[in-house]
Amino acid sequence: MAARASIRQIVRQARCNSYCIPLRRGLQTAAAPASRIPTFAFAFDIDGVLVRSSDALPRAHKALSYLQSQHIPWILLTNGGGSHESARVAELSSKLNVPIDTSMFVQSHTPFADMDHLKDKTVMVVGGEADKCRAVAEAYGFKTVVTPGDILVAHPDIWPFSQQLLPYYKTFTRPLPAPIDPASPSTSLRIDAVFVYNDPRDWGLDSQVIKDVLLSHRGILGTLSRKNGNAALDNRGYQQDGQPPLYFSNPDLLWAAKYHLPRLGQGGFREAFEGIWTAITGGEAHGVKLQKTVLGKPHQPTYEFAEKRLISHRRNLLQCHGGTLANLQRVYMVGDNPASDIAGGNNYKSPHGIDWASILVQTGVYVEGTVPAHQPRNTVGDVWDAVTWAAAQEKWLT
Ligand code: G3P
Ligand code: MG
């Protein structure tokens, strides 16, 4: 028994040394006394809180490096995406000048990486710059990834209005894994799932191709399901014929980019697509709903995913202090978007009974003096104000 305990202690110490010292060397300012284990932590939104497009916001570095010096755990929780987590944390680490690693980072499509049941299938990945999102999906383990651009280059007639973009698409698209040949459905290209990974760049092409897949027979492009419009069937026969599931990674209608006013996001594309779907199917007035799964903040699964990541990151960060680690009591969700960050923080039901307290900053989507659609626990100027207010709440300030 004693021998096994000592092995456990050795393993813990080894992991501790491997984990803490690099971090400590990176973060060391005024290290917190070992006795003070924070039972609170932070989840920071990115766009409108830490950065505006490519620029770090003024006090972002100060806020994050202060927390690291105090060994107060935090993660980044963004509805953004479009590149692999490892690439994004490298970019953010240099932009914010704080060490960040993927164990403390969740972006809109990160949960797609857990969808093992679809990794041997043919999936369509929509959105993002060029075919960066295909590379992310492949890095997650998806073996056959098709993009709307691949389909357009193989069959330009599928969308007549992006012909001028063909030279652009030809720089990164690939041949299709199977031909689109409705005359031979068994050998024709079949899509088994549609993932919108990031903000679409070509709303016209992407809407056309997604519509074609959802109206098809069993996801076989170029076919049309005979069940569409059959009032005797559920959902009036739409998406009742083995069509693929449709996933959106981010519901944001608006987000804070470089421009001084909020810009349309992936949610804008989805709303536009739902308008097309309603026009084609008759919509809810005729008993038809677009069957889809939308992830990202404010949705519960994304917060559960993030909380799990935060708890394990906290354990790694604080295990060095030895003894039993007190449970995490509170997470401060710092965001600029009432509809995603604040609604998500307010409505999240933690399976661990952790209290999520939302803090709204005025450096992004939310405009000072207006009434937010979702009331935060507090509204402050920027991320540093959020950190100091929360630390004061926790009586942590040294
Ligand atoms: O596309 C990104 C945008 O929707 C918002 O990102 O970091 O504010 O959640 P973030
Ligand atoms: Mg934001």
From TrEMBL:
The keyword Hydrolase applies. Keywords: Hydrolase. GO terms for molecular function: hydrolase activity. SUPFAM superfamilies: HAD-like. The keyword Cell membrane does not apply. InterPro entries: CDP-alcohol_PTase-I, HAD-like_sf, HAD-SF_hydro_IIA, HAD-SF_hydro_IIA_CECR5, HAD_sf. GO terms for biological process: glycerophospholipid biosynthetic process. GO terms for cellular component: mitochondrion. PANTHER family: CDP-DIACYLGLYCEROL--GLYCEROL-3-PHOSPHATE 3-PHOSPHATIDYLTRANSFERASE-RELATED (PTHR14269), SUPERFAMILY HYDROLASE, PUTATIVE (AFU_ORTHOLOGUE AFUA_2G02580)-RELATED (PTHR14269:SF57). NCBIfam families: CECR5, HAD-SF-IIA. This is HAD-superfamily hydrolase. It comes from Clathrospora elynae.
